[in-house]
Inverse folding.
């Protein structure tokens, strides 16, 4: 990610797979200050702290996209080690954060800890790391309190389990909602632009543009989003034409 003014890299990012579910924990840090955050530290605290030490990063925050144990299981441990704040997800996922330990046992994951964030996130909130600003979109469907954290200038988003390369998040878990998830993707993510690269909760990165072309669940041909987008643009053009003619 770069500073648009100076066109120099401001932040570095590394993806650290954690837990037997191979969840993508992201380590983001400032090149200048070496202060960084973990996005979705799901587990394997020693591995995570080892990665921070390897790159000389001082952890100053944990950002959570949602409350499932493979995304939030190590948040409490990171805070215990570093004293950092835990930020996110939306408050509607606290019930999941309260079940991290019991959920982990079902998958043989015993190092996760229940946690209450220092701050919940709301749609439209803003996060910052060394002057680089990140937007927040509330994107329910996979879980009711899921959020996506994005940096528009750097064309990068951390989407948790909302969207994957060629797939979307599961909605058969408690309080999941398939139509709500589709609506979250098309109304909150697609408007950010086709060039946005995203780090999913599992698997390889992709771009919103690629998924709009080929994803069998949310491609424009499936959802009709492109047609609705063009219709909305046409209506705006017509209104402007009448207004200024």
């Amino acid at each position: 990610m770069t500073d648009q003014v100076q066109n120099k890299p401001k932040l570095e990012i590394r993806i650290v797979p954690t837990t037997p579910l191979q969840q993508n924990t992201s380590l983001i840090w400032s090149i200048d200050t070496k202060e960084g955050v973990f996005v979705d530290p799901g587990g394997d605290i020693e591995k995570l702290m080892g990665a921070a030490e390897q790159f000389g990063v001082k952890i100053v925050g944990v950002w959570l996209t949602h409350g499932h144990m493979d995304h939030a299981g190590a948040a409490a441990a990171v805070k215990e080690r570093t004293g950092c704040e835990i930020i996110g997800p939306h408050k509607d996922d606290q019930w999941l954060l309260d079940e991290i330990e019991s959920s982990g046992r079902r998958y043989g994951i015993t190092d996760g800890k229940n946690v209450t964030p220092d701050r919940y996130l709301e749609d439209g909130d803003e996060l910052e790391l060394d002057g680089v600003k990140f937007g927040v979109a509330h994107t329910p469907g996979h879980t009711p309190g899921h959020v996506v954290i994005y940096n528009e200038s750097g064309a990068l988003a951390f989407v948790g389990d909302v969207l994957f390369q060629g797939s979307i998040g599961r909605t058969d878990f408690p309080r999941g909602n398939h139509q709500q998830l589709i609506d979250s993707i098309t109304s909150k993510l697609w408007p950010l632009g086709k060039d946005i690269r995203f780090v999913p909760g599992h698997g390889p990165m992709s771009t919103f543009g690629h998924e709009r072309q080929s994803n069998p669940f949310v491609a424009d041909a499936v959802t009709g989003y492109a047609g609705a987008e063009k219709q909305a643009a046409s209506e705006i053009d017509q209104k402007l034409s009448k207004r200024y003619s």
In short: DSSP finds nine helices and 15 strands in the chain. The chain has one domain: 2-244. Residues 2-244 form a domain with the Metallo-beta-lactamase; Chain A fold (CATH 3.60.15.10).
